[in-house]
Design brief:
With 99 residues, the chain is an alpha+beta fold. It has one domain. Helix content is 31%, strand content 29%. The chain has two helices and three strands; from the N terminus they run ββααβ. A three-stranded antiparallel beta sheet has the order 1-2-3, covered by helices on one side. Helix 1 packs across helix 2. 3% of the residues are buried.
Length: 99
């Protein structure tokens, strides 16, 4: 199925967490809303391909030296990727409220 001229897609990702500490509870939310570029790249292609492309470039530049398969849970991996995604207007809005 193709987009009509000027049509675009939209991505919505929303996470909610309840954190319980010894002295408090918090609700944390993280929301991403992104739109494709009319007559250009879809939001789906941007949000899937850009993180992989950024990580690949970081490996080629020697900024990531890990070998093997790793989950992106290390700050030295995900922080620069998220920063560069923000430069491409792909960002999460995060909020924490006490319960």
């Amino acid at each position: 199925m193709q987009y009509a001229p000027g049509e675009r897609d939209m991505i919505v990702m929303h996470h909610e967490f309840i954190a319980e500490y010894s002295n408090r509870r918090e609700k944390m939310t993280s929301t991403l809303i992104d739109y494709g570029i009319p007559n250009g790249d879809s939001s789906m292609s941007r949000t899937v391909a850009l993180p992989v492309a950024i990580a690949s470039r970081m490996i080629l530049e020697g900024k990531i030296t890990l070998t093997g398969v790793h989950r992106p849970i290390m700050p030295e991996v995900y922080e620069p990727i998220l920063k560069e995604l923000e430069e491409n207007n792909i960002r999460f809005k995060e909020q924490t409220i006490p319960l």
